[in-house]
Amino acid sequence: MIRTFRPGDQHALRNIHLSSITRVGPLAYSPAQVAAWAGRIRDTEEWLEWHRFGDRITVSVASDGQPVAFALLEADGHLDMLYCHPDHLRQGHALRLVEEASAFARSVGLSMLYTEASELARPVFEAGGYKVEHRQDFLLDGVPIHNYAMSKVFTPAATSQLAVAVK
């Protein structure tokens, strides 16, 4: 099930974030890269601030109602975070969150979404219709690391309907 953030979720989301980086990150990143990435884990109060600010935090929950994955979508269409707890990988949570972000973006009139996807998240975003723009190599606390600038452009409904009518 997918739902929006509720105050009280912040501790579970922080745990998902840290667990994903430290337990899944090593599949594609070096120990130094994982340590630098994990050093950027957000404080639980930041989740509440994002929620109050109006950022859309969407949560995928397990059958027991506990959060197992989340996405953070900013008002400008930036999908800033997508993380899944390691115990719940390959169950469709991340792709459902990416698809939900697309549906929400369309419903509010956004023409595109964009993200910076890790090596591990890239296939999920590609499955959700995002295209890689370029690889981004940068330093994170002095450690070389990379991700991928990706975007998904929405075809306006009126344009796509007109194109079908003309054919």
From TrEMBL:
Sequence ranges assigned to domain N-acetyltransferase in this UniProt record: 1-155
Highest taxon above the source species: Bacteria
The protein's Enzyme Commission number: 2.3.1.-
Coiled-coil boundaries: none
SUPFAM superfamilies, A to Z: Acyl-CoA N-acyltransferases (Nat) (SSF55729)
Annotated GO MF terms: acyltransferase activity
Keywords, alphabetical: Acyltransferase, Transferase
Protein name: GNAT family N-acetyltransferase
